[in-house]
Each structure stands twice: as structure tokens, then as C-alpha cells.
Amino acid sequence: DTSGRPHLTEREHPPGERINLRRASDLRGSARRLASRVPPR
């Protein structure tokens, strides 16, 4: 049960997890750019 545990701040995350989060946000950003280039149908 994690209700009693404080939420981890970003600096408390392991470096690998931070890289995964950054890569995920990069993928979301590139997907948004691709979507904006293609006209919506």
C-alpha cells in the first residue's frame, strides 16, 4: 500500500527512470509534430 509513502520527486528517481521519462516525452512530442503535419480526417 503506497498511501502512506510520500510521492517521489524527480531528483529521487533513478537516472534510468528519468531517461525513460524523457524518452517518453520526446516520443510524445515527435508524435504531436507528425500529427500536426498530417491534416486531420
UniProtKB/TrEMBL annotation:
It comes from Paraglomus occultum. This is 2706_t:CDS:1. Residues 7-26 have a biased composition (Basic and acidic residues). Residues 30-41 have a biased composition (Basic residues). Residues 1-41 are annotated as: Disordered.
